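Friendly challenge for the regulars: who can give me the structure tokens for this chain first? No prize, just bragging rights.
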Amino acid sequence: MSLAYIGLGANLGDARGALQAAFEALAALPDTELLRRSSTYRSAPIDSSGPDYLNAVAELRTALEPLALLHRLQAIELAHGRERPYRNAPRTLDLDLLLHGQTLIDSAELTLPHPRAHERAFVLQPLAELAPDLIIPGRGRASELLAVVADQSIERLPT
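First reply, four minutes later:
Bragging rights claimed.
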């Protein structure tokens, strides 16, 4: 069993409802337990346009291997109408595999840890909420990396 962290985001349609449905789908994955979920945050799009995103992070304990988990995440996205017309397009639901234990992968299909997690407040803030001492391999402690992205607008939403 490995601890895995999943970044959730949505900025089209019922974004809050999409995140809730995604948490439920993550909890229903085989050989997987949803341990914790962060608060929901609002953030402006980065390298994109469109409405603000709602973001969160899920902490899972899973026996699924990284690629198998990635494929399950992509199936959940598709079930929620995810389209990929161009890079960083607005999304009904985005699920990013951020970390899977201490696994390091750099392939055409998957890079772990997520290659831009350390550059995004919408990932680091909810990740640090769940696990402030978590080390992103090769990058540092999640809570300390927040200083690097302090210029990115992010707001914790009431529950």
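The mean pLDDT is 93. The chain has one domain: 2-156. Your move, everyone else.
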